[in-house]
Amino acid sequence: MGEQPIYTTRAHVFQIDPTTKKNWVPASKQAVTVSYFYDSTRNSYRIISVDGSKVIINSTITPNMTFTKTSQKFGQWADSRANTVFGLGFASEQQLAKFSEKFQEVKEAAKLARDKSQDKGETLSNHSQEESGRDTPSSNRASSINGTDDEKFLHVEPEEAVLQTENEHLKSAIEQSNTSAKKWETELQTLRENNARLVDALQESSANVESWKKQLGACKEESDTLREKIAELEAQCNEANQEKQRNVQLSVRVQELEAELHDKEQELENLRKQAEIIPQLMAECESITTKLQTAESRNKELEGRVDGLQLDIEDSQQKQVNMKGDLKKFMDMLDGKIDELHEFRQGLSKLGVDN
User: Fold this and answer.
1) The pLDDT of residue 193
2) CB 43: neighbour CB atoms within 10 A?
3) Residue 147: what are its φ and ψ, rounded to 5°?
4) At the N or C end, where does the chain have fewer CB atoms within 10 A?
């Protein structure tokens, strides 16, 4: 299967200054791709980053490594094999947090892989020790059975058993070495294939970079030409817009003047109509003044009559007052006469009774 990417992000890559061990030296001019790779054949993990045709990060992750966040968007880790410290500057805190989490996951996976390989080694060593332990008692049992009659056989039998054990160990070691050799050959072949692919990819990318540079130069020239044309067109558009604004203002002013002219013409027509009516109005005014004069004279006569009537009314009122007084006196006298007549009637009635 070879190496496969398991996580990819983008960041600015830095390396510690090898002389001062304090300052950071940028390894890329801009943000580049940083990826985690998993090698299933060797059961290992690596962080790889390529800037153009240059490999700027090739760090194999071990359980002893630690990724440290030194700021909100910057993190670093030390690689003892590469004898350097790598630093990554991210565009956001989320990207840094995700990269740190992935680093911890890969670190734990590398630790588990190391523990499994150690367990396998211990199992193989214990197995070989058990086999040697089994061979040694059998030789002791053979020597004890033969007794002391044949000392030469006693000396030869353990040596043969030891040789057989060593031969078995050598055979197992040779088999393991053959297996390891085949494994390393497979890994070497895989690495060669990967290197060949990387070389092809680098050559292709370098060729693409050259073509891209040419295309970029042509695009820049075209963009410069287009920018100049755009600037000219924008200037022309600005002039045209200014002319349009002026025309709009002039059209608005013309409409206002036309409206004012129409109003003035309407006023003039009204004045002409009024001028035609003026003689009639003058005649009407003269007749009205004559009528007013007549009415004023009549008012004066009526005022004289009203004054006379008021005097007559005052005289009549005075006469009424006088007549009321006379009438009251007459009524009083009439009441006295009626009383006297009543007394006279009573006297006459008494006289008639007496007679």
Assistant:
1) 67
2) 14
3) 75, -155
4) C
